[in-house]
Design brief:
By secondary structure, the protein is an all-alpha fold. Helix content is 73%, strand content 0%. Helix 3 runs antiparallel to helix 7, helix 3 crosses helix 8 and helix 8 runs parallel beside helix 12.
Length: 266
């Protein structure tokens, strides 16, 4: 089977999942509105603090807004396309994973196409903050138009990195089953920490966020070049390479974990 075939099959499964979810339009609209309010309130709290103190370790409000927006959009892209990878525990504890294993498609593809989520609130919030941040930085002369395509590259690479972290964490479930607490550490807490400049953290924590759980490569590392001109243009291809390496390692770990999986009936 070719990659084109599997991508086409994934698109068909996604359309089916979307049609199923849109049967409850009121819940979708209400959930979208509430999510938008929560997302904007979260950044508003950061903005209030920065407005009072001016900057954090030399990082302005527009720069922190940029970090926040890139992380939000990268996470949204990952969770839109592979939402139920994050919810593998449910499939393990209820036996639903065994049902997916009987389908004539790769298990990861089947899992990724389950419960596809449209996330307009997160897309709107992230895009709005990103536009505001880039506009402010451009008006001050800190960046030029080239920051936009570099930012889009960072978001795509960032979504691959976040997906890889989520996939590796989910694979631990093949041994532990219960992984919610681990996901809180490797995904939720790590991503929240990376919405701020890593320069504010001690060296040991920066090392964790760059090496052990590499969320720093989603927004902080690319921002060093895009916003501050540090290191040089080679940094962006290097980030794409990091994303590719992390993805390959996560896939190998996933396949290894799946080979050790014992179904609920065994």
């Amino acid at each position: 089977m070719t990659i084109k075939y599997w991508l086409g099959l994934y698109a068909v499964l996604i359309r089916s999942s979307v049609r199923s979810g849109m049967q409850y339009k009121f819940n979708f609209i209400l959930g979208t509105i509430l999510a938008a309010l929560v997302q904007f309130a979260e950044f508003l709290m950061i903005a209030i603090v920065l407005n009072k103190f001016g900057a954090i370790k030399g990082w302005s409000l527009h720069e922190v807004g940029y970090l926040f927006a890139v992380m939000t959009l990268s996470k949204t892209l990952y969770r839109m396309l592979a939402n139920d990878v994050h919810h593998l525990e449910k499939y393990l504890t209820t036996g639903e994973l065994d049902q997916l294993l009987t389908r004539p498609v790769p298990i990861l593809l089947a899992l990724m196409s389950q419960n596809f989520r449209l996330m307009p609130a997160e897309l709107l919030q992230g895009s709005t903050i990103l536009f505001w941040s880039l506009h402010g930085l451009h008006a001050s002369g800190q960046i030029t138009w080239i920051a936009l395509p570099y930012t889009l590259l960072a978001i795509v690479a960032g979504s691959v990195i976040l997906f890889s972290i989520g996939l590796a964490t989910a694979a631990v479930g093949f041994w532990m089953t219960r992984i919610n607490e681990l996901q809180t550490l490797t995904e939720d807490s790590a991503q929240t920490a990376a919405r701020y400049p890593l320069a504010i953290y001690p060296a040991w924590l920066r090392s964790i966020l760059l090496i052990v759980i590499p969320v720093g490569f989603v927004n902080y590392v690319p921002s060093l070049f895009i916003l501050r001109g540090e290191y040089g243009p080679w940094l962006m291809p290097a980030i794409a390479l990091v994303a590719g390496i992390v993805f390959c390692l996560a896939m190998k770990f996933w396949k290894f974990g799946l080979s050790r999986y014992q179904s609920t009936g065994s």
